[in-house]
Amino acid sequence: xxxxxxxxxxxxxxxxxxxxxxxxxxxxxxxxxxxxxxxxxxxxxxxxxxxxxxxxxxxxxxxxxxxxxxxxxxxxxxxxxxxxxxxxxxxxxxxxxxxxx
Length: 101
Fold this sequence. Notes:
Keywords: Monooxygenase, Oxidoreductase. This protein has helices at 16-22, 24-30, 59-75, 90-95; strands at 3-10, 36-44, 49-56, 82-87. The chain is an alpha+beta fold. It has one domain (3-95): Alpha-Beta Plaits (2-Layer Sandwich). A four-stranded antiparallel beta sheet has the order 2-3-1-4. A hairpin with a 4-residue loop joins β2 (36-44) and β3 (49-56). It starts with a strand and ends in a 6-residue tail after the last helix. The mean pLDDT is 92.
Protein backbone atom coordinates (compact mmCIF):
# COMPACT_ATOMS: atom_id res chain seq x y z
CA UNK A 1 0.00 0.00 0.00
CA UNK A 2 1.36 3.44 -0.94
CA UNK A 3 1.18 6.52 1.29
CA UNK A 4 0.80 10.22 0.53
CA UNK A 5 2.84 12.78 2.44
CA UNK A 6 1.37 16.27 2.09
CA UNK A 7 3.67 19.14 3.12
CA UNK A 8 3.21 22.90 2.93
CA UNK A 9 4.93 25.91 4.49
CA UNK A 10 5.39 29.64 4.15
CA UNK A 11 8.29 30.69 1.93
CA UNK A 12 9.36 33.99 0.38
CA UNK A 13 10.42 32.40 -2.90
CA UNK A 14 11.86 31.67 -5.31
CA UNK A 15 8.90 30.48 -7.38
CA UNK A 16 8.28 29.37 -10.96
CA UNK A 17 11.24 28.97 -13.29
CA UNK A 18 13.66 30.38 -10.73
CA UNK A 19 12.52 27.79 -8.18
CA UNK A 20 12.92 25.01 -10.77
CA UNK A 21 16.45 26.15 -11.53
CA UNK A 22 17.56 26.65 -7.93
CA UNK A 23 15.97 23.48 -6.55
CA UNK A 24 16.85 21.03 -9.33
CA UNK A 25 19.64 19.40 -7.30
CA UNK A 26 17.26 19.03 -4.36
CA UNK A 27 14.68 17.45 -6.67
CA UNK A 28 17.24 14.94 -7.92
CA UNK A 29 18.26 14.05 -4.36
CA UNK A 30 14.64 13.42 -3.35
CA UNK A 31 14.38 10.68 -5.99
CA UNK A 32 17.08 8.76 -4.11
CA UNK A 33 15.22 8.68 -0.78
CA UNK A 34 14.23 5.29 0.59
CA UNK A 35 10.71 4.32 -0.45
CA UNK A 36 10.21 7.41 -2.63
CA UNK A 37 7.85 6.97 -5.57
CA UNK A 38 6.91 10.46 -6.80
CA UNK A 39 6.41 14.11 -5.89
CA UNK A 40 4.21 16.92 -7.17
CA UNK A 41 5.75 20.29 -6.35
CA UNK A 42 3.28 22.95 -5.17
CA UNK A 43 3.66 26.72 -4.97
CA UNK A 44 1.56 29.84 -4.57
CA UNK A 45 3.60 33.03 -4.95
CA UNK A 46 0.55 35.17 -4.10
CA UNK A 47 0.40 33.71 -0.59
CA UNK A 48 4.12 32.86 -0.27
CA UNK A 49 3.44 29.16 0.17
CA UNK A 50 5.18 26.10 -1.20
CA UNK A 51 5.37 22.39 -0.57
CA UNK A 52 4.59 19.12 -2.21
CA UNK A 53 2.55 15.98 -2.48
CA UNK A 54 4.80 12.94 -2.14
CA UNK A 55 4.09 9.26 -2.57
CA UNK A 56 6.09 6.72 -0.57
CA UNK A 57 6.00 2.93 -0.54
CA UNK A 58 5.35 2.67 3.21
CA UNK A 59 4.17 4.82 6.10
CA UNK A 60 7.55 4.32 7.75
CA UNK A 61 9.50 5.71 4.78
CA UNK A 62 7.11 8.70 4.59
CA UNK A 63 7.62 9.39 8.31
CA UNK A 64 11.40 9.02 7.99
CA UNK A 65 11.49 11.45 5.06
CA UNK A 66 9.25 13.95 6.88
CA UNK A 67 11.57 13.95 9.89
CA UNK A 68 14.65 14.51 7.73
CA UNK A 69 13.00 17.09 5.48
CA UNK A 70 11.61 19.09 8.42
CA UNK A 71 15.16 19.42 9.77
CA UNK A 72 16.41 20.46 6.33
CA UNK A 73 13.67 23.09 6.02
CA UNK A 74 14.54 24.41 9.49
CA UNK A 75 18.10 24.84 8.21
CA UNK A 76 16.64 27.08 5.48
CA UNK A 77 14.83 29.11 8.17
CA UNK A 78 11.44 27.46 7.56
CA UNK A 79 9.99 26.44 10.91
CA UNK A 80 6.20 26.12 10.54
CA UNK A 81 5.85 23.01 8.41
CA UNK A 82 2.36 21.55 8.00
CA UNK A 83 2.40 17.85 7.19
CA UNK A 84 -0.06 14.96 6.98
CA UNK A 85 0.26 11.34 5.94
CA UNK A 86 -2.62 9.53 4.23
CA UNK A 87 -3.21 6.07 2.83
CA UNK A 88 -4.25 5.90 -0.82
CA UNK A 89 -7.54 4.33 -1.86
CA UNK A 90 -6.17 2.62 -4.96
CA UNK A 91 -9.53 1.56 -6.40
CA UNK A 92 -11.00 5.08 -6.41
CA UNK A 93 -7.69 6.60 -7.49
CA UNK A 94 -7.64 4.32 -10.53
CA UNK A 95 -11.16 5.41 -11.54
CA UNK A 96 -10.09 9.08 -11.44
CA UNK A 97 -6.87 8.49 -13.41
CA UNK A 98 -4.58 9.03 -10.43
CA UNK A 99 -1.08 7.68 -10.72
CA UNK A 100 0.47 6.02 -7.72
CA UNK A 101 3.75 4.83 -9.24
